[in-house]
Amino acid sequence: MIGGGFIGSEIAAALTMNGEKVTMLFPEDGIGARVYPRELSQYLNDFFREKGVELLTGVNVKDLKKSKDSFLLITDKEQQVPVDGVIAGIGIMPNIELADLLD
Q1: Which residues of 7-26 are buried (b: 16+ CB within 10 A; e: fewer)?
Q2: Residues 22-55 pLDDT 10s
Q3: Comparing C-alpha atoms, which of 41, 71, 72 is closest to residue 57?
């Protein structure tokens, strides 16, 4: 699962509840870190780990390679993560440049 926001965490939770092994990769330090206070974000990290989700925080996906039956995610820290499938719930970053000019 690429992404640690609302959509990414919901999909990861659903897959885990259905017995799938899930690895989440995201650039922030914690799940929902863009919107939640640090303490809540870290709590969610701990909770998801307790449920069996592997978290790779502080990383971006640099490349994705497909082999016959699987994929290999390569991070910007040169980690290679073999996976059976990939779901990207990366959200959006609003362009607030115009709003900043009006301030």
Answers
A1: ebbebbbebbeeeeebebbb
A2: 999 999 999 999 999 999 999 999 999 999 999 9
A3: 41
**Which of 63, 53, 47, 42 lies closest to 1, judged by CA?**
53
Residue for token digits 């650039």? 27
Is there a contact between 30 and 44 (Cβ–Cβ < 8 Å)?
A: yes
* Whole-number Å distance between alpha carbons of 67 and 63: 13
User: What amino acid is encoded at 4 in this protein?
Assistant: G
Rounded Cα gap, residues 18 and 24, in angstroms: 16
Pair of tokens at residue 52 = 């069996």
Residue 51's alpha-carbon distances to 33, 57, 69, in angstroms, are 19, 17, 26
Token pair 């995201």 is found at 26
Q: Is 88 helix (H, G, I), strand (E, B) or coil?
A: strand
- Whole-prediction pTM value? 0.84
